[in-house]
Write a structure and sequence with these properties.
Layout (H helix, E strand, L loop, with lengths): L7 E7 L7 H11 L4 E7 L5 H9 L4 E6 L4 H7 L2 E2 L1 H6 L4 E5 L2 E5 L2 H11 L8 E5 L3 H11 L5 E6 L2 H14 L4 E6 L12 E4 L23 E4 L8 H8 L3 E3 L2 H5 L1 H8 L4
Parallel strand pairs: 1-2, 1-3, 4-6, 7-8, 7-10, 8-9, 10-11, 11-12
Antiparallel strand pairs: 3-5, 5-6
Helix pairs in contact: 5-6
Bound molecules: 2'-monophosphoadenosine-5'-diphosphate.
């Protein structure tokens, strides 16, 4: 890949920076598709975020940045425009520079939904059960609510957190049936579900309990996780063993590449 005076420049901002994946995800695509762009790691400490980003946004050949830890929330506060997903999560993972303006998006949920559809799972009229009500859950809930699903049930250990997401979503998606329940009472709703997605941290550790039982679920249900390491959580392995359809966490990230590329006007 030859970088010249015409090459458009993009970045990924983080602190620490050495673990970022975006350069390895995007640059090979630019090379394959002969796109005159490059994406570089930009190490920005938290206390320098605003001045660094204002400087970057003032550069005419700098198109935007991917955003990761610890900047996802503070960067949302610096944006001039936020998508609905970014507003509801209060976090961004991509920011486009548009003549000095900062346009923020959060593709976590869109990546999850795009991954499900891309892997051949139909969401039309689906009853979806989402387990968890943290930051990732918010992103996924907004993206699911934007699909022609049947209904959305949010089950969480702390009911108030599930209720908070349901209340916000009902304002934006009044036509959709959304219910919030305690995770302890989830067994009663399992048989009616077409898709069950775990957005909690349960499954990261070997001795974690399962997000929910797999007894009593429909034989055609899709069991989806967003945990990336391990690639197959104990819950997904148990679902596979029962012959259920499964959807691993890695798809959520993989499918964000093209969404972010299009948003940044590169791909
Ligand atoms: P993230 O931003 O990655 O989504 P988070 O905001 O900390 O992380 O959210 C973690 C989610 O996992 C929450 O839904 C949390 O439930 P609570 O709202 O009750 O805290 C859920 N969670 C974490 N540990 C859990 C456990 N041991 N059992 C059930 N739910 C758990």
């Amino acid at each position: 890949m030859m970088i010249t005076g015409t090459t458009r420049v993009f970045g990924v901002i983080a602190d620490p920076i050495d673990h970022v994946r975006a350069p390895m995800v995007f640059n090979p695509v630019f090379e394959d598709r002969k796109i005159d762009a490059v994406l570089v790691p930009l190490h920005i400490p938290a206390h320098d975020l605003e001045k660094s980003v204002r400087g970057l946004a003032a550069m005419p050949n700098m198109g935007g940045v991917c955003v990761t830890i610890p900047h996802k929330l503070p960067m949302a506060n610096l944006c001039d425009d936020l998508s609905l997903a970014a507003q509801i999560t209060g976090a961004v993972n991509a920011v486009r520079f548009d003549q000095g303006r900062l346009i923020g998006e959060n593709f976590d949920g869109a990546g999850f939904v795009s991954g499900l559809i891309g892997e051949g799972h139909d969401l039309t009229d689906a009853n979806v059960l989402m387990i968890g009500a943290g930051g990732a859950a918010r992103a996924i809930a907004v993206a699911l609510a934007g699909q022609p699903i049947g209904q959305l049930t949010i089950a969480n250990r702390t009911l108030a957190n599930a209720d908070a997401i349901a209340t916000i979503l009902r304002e934006h998606f009044p036509q959709l049936t959304i219910q919030a329940i305690e995770l302890a009472k989830v067994d009663a709703v399992l048989p009616a579900q077409d898709v069950i997605v775990n957005t909690t941290s349960l499954g990261l550790k070997d001795d974690d309990k399962m997000p929910c039982s797999l007894e009593g679920v429909d034989a055609d249900v899709i069991i989806a996780d967003i945990i990336m390491v391990p690639e197959k959580t104990a819950w997904l392995l148990a679902a596979e063993k029962k012959g259920l359809k499964t959807h691993a966490g890695k798809h959520m990230l993989d499918y964000q590449r093209d969404l972010i590329g299009r948003f940044l006007n590169i791909l």
